[in-house]
Predict the 3D structure of the following.
Amino acid sequence: MPERDYSEAALRSNPKGLAALFNSGSATARLWRPDELTAIFRHQLTAPVLVDLGRLDLGAAAKLKGLTDAQGLILKSFAELFHHPTPPIELLAMTKDFAKANMSQPESALPHEIATAIYYLSIAAAAVRLGERISQLPDADLRRGYAWACAQEWIDADTKALLLTASGRLSGSSP
């Protein structure tokens, strides 16, 4: 197609569609529909921890294998990790770091929203299940992050309950 045909096609195009195309690289662009995020989130929660976190260096991957099989826990998925009564703190920290790395990489295969939810879920699970803090974020920032995750329609009820419990344990929270 000659170059001028592209120009003519652009001039005949829907302005809102063109604006969305130009904004698709911006931080405010919405790339995923809620139903797509639901499917991606469910898939991520059932994905084997070793698949995603196993891409680490050899030493970290070996440590990860030991943590997922530690004490007969056999934690295979992210959902099992987040909802286990006593998950390994090191594994929660590794998951938080994995999610944080994916949040800051625009070319990540994991949507930013999903990475952000996993980030806050890791922190919430450590707080609720172990009474440990694995984040330097102030309570106000954690509260906002938990609230954001709970507001996502693609987050399931059990996961929202974990986030709400964690939020309730932050300083300044009403009982």
